Automatic annotation (TrEMBL):
Organism domain of life: Eukaryota
Name this protein carries in UniProt: Protein serine/threonine phosphatase 2C
An example molecular function term from Gene Ontology annotations: [pyruvate dehydrogenase (acetyl-transferring)]-phosphatase activity
InterPro entries with a match to the protein in the record: PP2C, PPM-type-like_dom_sf, PPM-type_phosphatase-like_dom
A GO CC term attached to the entry: mitochondrion
Pfam families linked: PP2C
Domain PPM-type phosphatase: from-to ranges: 184-565
Region (Disordered): 56-82
Amino acid sequence: MIRGWRAVGRQFASAGCRDRTLGPSLPGLTARTHTTPFSGLSRRRVESRVLRKAQSAPSGLHIREHISGGRHHASPPPQPRILQSRFPTKTFVAVVIISALVYYSGKVEISFDEPLHVRVNQHALPGGPSVLQCFSDVQQINEAMSLASTYRRPPYEMLEGIYDRFEEMVGGWMMEENEAQELDMPVTHGCRFGSNNPTEDSFSLGSSPGPGGQQWKYWGVYDGHAGHQTSLHLQWCLIPYVSRALSALSNNQKSSVTSTIMQTFVQLDNEIMTQAKTAGHWSPTASPNAMLALNPAFAGSCALLSAYDPETSKLSVACVGDSRAVLGRWDPASQTYICKPLSVDQTGFNASEKARILAEHPDEPDILDDKSGRLLGLAVTRAFGDHRLKWDNEFIKQLQYKFWGHAPRPQSKTPPYLTAEPVVTETDVQAIPSGQQSSSTRSDFMIMASDGLWDRISSEHAVECVQRWLEAKERGKGSVRADPQLQTYDSLAAVADRPDPSVTYDVEAGKEANWKATPEFFAIEDENAAVCLARNAMGGTRRSLAVTIWAASGTPQSRDLVDGK
């Protein structure tokens, strides 16, 4: 996020709600809301409204999206006139392409009212330059070339329009306070910005039973890699699996919460891998059923799950991989929020992870790269899926040719190298009703995000950013945009090519252009706290930096810009 960013800032509130889990819809699937019966319709309406917000939020930035109003167009400017038949508009693209192929091949004659090259279309095919380019004279050619030059250098007026719609561009969504109260959920803000299409990251949240059947609150962040199938599987399954296991505990067994969560993570990964292995071994070549079972094993995903017990105000955070959760806790002495880590990144740079892996594979000292922290090329040391680091090479090679899988890792000798067993922390949360908060007592807030956010901003600075957001909202009497101290900026045209010493690179050291989000560049202007974090990770007041990231959207460089290394 920033490949698939999903930072979540929230004020903890009172608990006790129904069984429901929210998550975004992805291509070909629809997230469901599970609600047990209750009187009245208000909660159901609120729940549906919140679910629609999360589902309808874009998964990432699309530079070419149309900007309504005025003359702002984030799509390319009008293209050279292209051919158009008089078929229904719904089939326009297919008909144009097919007609063009038939027309130029000369194999089939199609009757039109006018010659095909005479009829023109004033609307470009979405997403790029015209597919068919027919010009009657040099003047039209020159006009087309001028438009192409404009597309390569979008007008700053259009870029200002994109910047004003930053929240939409990064897929921002949030619960309003009244919605959270009706759902009995803590206020939650989120966003998701992906460098891949479809984005490999997913998230889910909601309330579901915990020990003794009492309603707990859950939030999950799933940072996928090598495909979106594993993270999507976790979006559907992880909270229900954990909730089902916890609900089997009685109230006097809450000391077993940590071990139960750990066992459930491992159980779910074992199911993914066992079903995939069985399908790959016994199914015929190119079997669709086997392919569906293999997909979550071929891909991989980190997982970060938070489970909150409202009765005891205890928060359990389970981490597999390098997504991170931090808590902002009010310190009355300094009158600031301090950062309290809730998880530790699991990479080769983590000394305890390195020691664990080398102890399990004592004769393979080179499986961890000291420079990159990677385990056999993988950036994390724990993950769901990732068959190449869990199965033997002979079987992996069989799947390579039978089901188009990836080749075995060359250095893999004694798998498995990966585990999906999480490291779980427990923290007592300060949950104070809004009417009782003061300069000496304030509620905690939590930030959860995939590694893309943390590549650009430290945990401490992220907490400070949310604190500034809270202060701006307070000054604006509930609205950040109404903050009398709201910042103003120079136009993009004025700053676009201005040198920025905070963006550095080093050719000799092999370090690409890089930047960090630090307080002197914080821009606090969004009503959504998660979007505020995303904006600042992508430049903050350095507005031209954010536009550069958008300009690279859809290019191979995009992953370096928004996912880090």
